[in-house]
Structures are given as structure tokens and as C-alpha cells.
Amino acid sequence: MSGARSHGRCLPDQESELFPRETVENERRDLFTTYDDVEVKVDSESTTISSPTAVRRLSESSLAVHDKAVVTNVEKRMGLTELTPIQKHAIPLAMSGLDLVCSAHTGSGKTLAFAIPAVEIALKRKAEKRESAAMTTSTSSNEEERDNTDATTKTIATISTPCQPSVVILAPTRELARQIYLDVRKVCFDTGLRVACAHGGENCKPQLEHIAFGPEILVCTPGRLLDFCDDEYVDLREVRLLVLDEADRMLDLGFEPQLRDLLGNRGKIPTEENGRQTLLFSATFSPKVLTLASKYTRPSPYRARISVGRVGALARGVTQKLVEVVKTNATDEKEPKEYKFPLLLEAIESRNKSDEKTMVFCKQVKTAIWLKERLSSMSSSSSDSDSDLKKKITVEALHGDLTQGARVRTLEAFRDGKISLLVATDVASRGLDIPLVEHVINFDLPTDKRDFEEYVHRLGRTARAGKKGTSTSLYVAGFEDEVGNGPIYKQLRNAFMESGESLPDWFVNHSDGNADEAKRTQQLKEREQRRRQGGRQDVPFERTRRREQGGRFGGSSSRSSNRSSNRSSSSSSSSSSSSSGSGESEERRRRYERGE
Description:
single chain; eight-stranded mixed β-sheet; disordered C terminus; alpha/beta; 24 helices; disordered N terminus
């Protein structure tokens, strides 16, 4: 079943809408065999649960419990006759009941690796409830009276009982939540399951109409889900499977207090001991995520860790290019973006395919708006010298200052090929699967080594599902705050070496790499000290950065503000003895919810 449509009525999905132009089977098989020789490490010490072996095809699974409709959807309608490495190992392990901590390359099929078990578990739970209801009915002392009141009871229960999903899938951004929602609907097509999606940034009424039909699977962002729990629209006590997609990004954005609330008394998701299964997925895993896994998953005998390739490795098939940004005049006060713009045009012009899509990543909202305006103005120019380039430039921007409706329309236009170039902040760097993106341009590279994983995720927007792609990155030398890319020199060099790419001579011999290590360390310490002592000076940038990861959760209503305030006071009272680090994370979360 799809979303609330036709004035609130939840109508079944149409096959032609869900599977409009799926790639043919043979092409998909050739694409995914790219990952067949990738090393897979499975760390499982389960003795109470027999761990099944990896499977190549869903229909050949040794578990033999896959619903026929699910197999048909995946293998025939989606054309995925052979599973990717992460799917081959994660699906049977998840179906056997183990908690999972999984990492794999971007574009390697992680979404289906948890979507298929999620649908199977929801179907199993639905069947259990049906059997339980049947047994209750058969033991009734007055069956005739029960039959007469059955319809009325059902109607009352539908109205008064909140949504009680069996599966909850959490994502850090709205765009990722909507994409997961679409993929899950494809997997559970024609199974009778209902799927709902809830996220911030838009009116909650359509989402409430949707969940009123009692979906078995709920895809959402943490903030909106917590709001619905507080207002008693959603009851999480029946949850049997919890999925955290892009778990590291949730922690980076300060979502841990919200996860703690959801898993505590306010969310009332069952504990691991009471039957909850937890799956964590991402392309990169920081030590913080492993700590999160130890908190919210069961101990080792009931938990497995799957690593496909090296954690944090680049997707296969990406050809990396580096371009040096040279300041022609040392006394010139131009901003770095002015020097970068001609290099951006050269990178765009170097690709001549008419059907190719290009994504340009920058760090801040104002840069994305500036680039969009500059590129759009070129298309309306009357000069003939750049006529070929102008014909190719149809551009839009995607960032956190846009309304949710504008963000959705922009993504749909880019997917459908109505625009060929998308300027985006890191709100679009995670999880989005957009076909025919063959070129990714890093207009702004990360300026902090702790943010280098964003480089990995940005490049993951191309070369997906075994295809080929190109990345062009504009490198600014030095260690100037929020400008110089010197702090990521080593990581950038290692990324090229690991993928077998040749580095340009200017980069190999650059002073950023040959600089005295002690001097560089001192520069980074001074930079960190300035950040800590800067107080309000750094707030605008940090606020902008938070907005780029997904914007506001709820609206601007006073009730949402009160809920946020209540959550803050509740959390602070329950953790009065916590460290100062937790306080900082809580404050960051509150500012993020307000969209600051």
C-alpha cells in the first residue's frame, strides 16, 4: 500500500508507478558482478543460533522462508536476480535473528540488504497476530455475540488504537527517508503490507492520515517519530526490528539523545532482551558508531558484524581527478570561489554526453545559491563563444534553506533528466540513488580530516551498482580555517593510492605533504583552539552546516517548540550526572531542531 492519497484514502500501489523503467535482468547481473571479488569479512560467534551460509539468489535461499511475492518483486520486477556481497550475507543472517553491524561501499545495495528482512519480519509478525486473533475468537464462549459486535469493535479499534508498527527504519535526512520508503514499497508490493513515511519539514497532517491505516513498517527521521510518540499517534511497543541507516551521520548530527529517548521509556521500543532485533548500516563507521552498537544491540553471541571491503573505502569504478586552485595574485582579495568558478566550468565542459548528469557539492547554502545563479545567468547570456556549454547547463540547487516541497521537486526533476546539473550541499551526499550521475564535482573539499568521510559519500553518488563515474575535486592548498584543504592531504593521497589512481605531480610534491609534521600539528591545534574560543564567531557556520544535513524536523508551531522544550528538560533531568560532552550534544540537537 502506498501513501495517503486521494483526499486521505490509502490506495494500493500500481505496478506501473513503482516499477516504471527497471533495468533488464542481464544488465543488472553484469553490473553487480563488479563486487563479486570484494573481500567480505563476517564476524559472528553465535552458538545459540545456527548462522546460515551466504546465498546468491533470493529464490535459492537455504532459509526457504521468503514470501513468493517478495521474490517476484526483487528478481522479476526489479531485475535483481543475483545479490550483491552485502545482501548475500546480511539477508540470511538477519533472517536468522541476529543483530547486525554492516558496512559496505556506497552503491552496493545496502538498502535492499535490510529492506528484504524488514518485509519478511513484518509479514511474519502480521501472520502471528492473525493467528493469535483467530485463537482468541475460537475460545470465545459466545461466538454468535462476538460475530455481531466484531465489525463495531474493529471500527473502534481502528480509530482509537495508535499506529503499532512491527518494523521501524530510521534515517538521518528527509531525502534518504523518502528513498528508503520507495524501495521498501517495491519489495512489499502485492504482499498486503502497509508502509508509511514520516519526516520533518512539511505538514504532518498527510503523514498522520497515512499512519492512521496502521502500517506494519514505518520509515522516519528521529525527530518526527519522537513527536508522534509524544502525541500518542505511534506506539512502538510492538516493534520487532529496528534499522538505523547511516548510523554514523545520526551521531554526527547529535541524534543520540533522541535515540536514547526512543529506546527508553518515552519511545517504549522493546529492549533486546524482550525480542527487539537491531540492524546498523553505513558505508563508514566511526568508533562512536561501534559504541552505539554496543549499547543498542545484543551481546556478541547474538550479534554479527559484516564488512564488505575496507570500511570507508571508495566505490569501485570512480575515476578521481584533482585540480589545483591557484591564486594568481597574492594581494588579491577575491574569495576562493571566484578562483574556483572557471575551473568548475572547465570540469563541466570536459564532459560532453548529452544525457549525463552532474552533481556539484559545496559546503554552505550561500555558495550553492551563488553557483546556481552564476550558472543560470550563463544560459541566458547572448554571447556565442560558450554556446555549446550553455546548451548543456540546466541547473538547480538543493540545500537546507529550501522548503521540503521544493527539495522534492528539485530531486524529481534531476532524476527525470529535466535538469542536467545539480548544485548541492551535503544534504544530498548520503544514500541517494539517482540514475546516470556520471560526474561528481567537489567545488568545496572538506577542510577538516574528521569530515573526510563526506568525500567518500559524495563520490558514492556516481559509479553506483557497478557502473562507471568520474569525480573532479578542486584543491585549495594550506590550512586556513574553512578554506584550506591541507588537513585532508594524507587521506586524499591514500584514497588515490588505494584505488590505483595516479596523483598529479603538483600534488605529490606539494608543501602540504612535505611540511614539517610538528608544524602542521601545531597549526591544527591553534585552529581547534580558535574554534573553541571563538564563541559566537563560529556559530553561523556551524548552524549552516547543521542545516545542510536535513533542516528542521518539525514545523515552527508553538506545540513543536513545547515538545522540544519538554524533551530537553526530560533528558536533562534524567541525565543530571552525565558528562559535559552529553550536554554539548543535547544543545547541538536543540539548535538543529530549531533549524539554526
